[in-house]
Amino acid sequence: MTQYVLKTSIEEADAIVNGDKSFVFRDDRYHYGFGDEITFQAYKNGSMTRHKIEGMKFRVTYTSADAPVEKGFKIIGFKRIA
After folding, report:
1. Which of 14, 47, 69, 74 suits 5 as a labelling partner, its CA being 20 to 30 A distant?
2. What one-character-per-residue DSSP string does 8-77 give?
3. What is the domain-level CATH number for residue 57?
């Protein structure tokens, strides 16, 4: 299991926290895999900002770089964990 910190926008962080979004698209140079843990750091205008998503952890439940995902990117599905 690997732990990752992903940068996110305030809008995306809000959607994740509210349970409206359970996936993200990210560069595929990292080898995100099933069971890995991710946390998010919110950014606004290029600078880190405080957001309630910081205290939350998520577990990767799905990854794919197959079409129709754009080449060089991967979809990462996740669920919140305690």
Report:
1. 69
2. EEHHHHHHHHTTS--EEEEETTS---TT-EEEEEEEETTEE---GGGG-EEEEEEEE--TTSPTTEEEEE
3. 2.30.130.30
Six-digit token string for 9: 């926008």
Contact yes or no for 5/38 (Cβ under 8 A)? yes
d(CA 13, CA 31): 22
* Domain containing residue 24: 3-81
Look up tokens 């926008």; give the residue.
9
C-alpha 61/C-alpha 27 separation (Å) is 17
What's the structural domain count of the chain? 1
The three-state secondary structure class of 2 is coil
Tens-digit pLDDT profile for residues 38-55: 999 999 999 999 999 999
pTM: 0.89
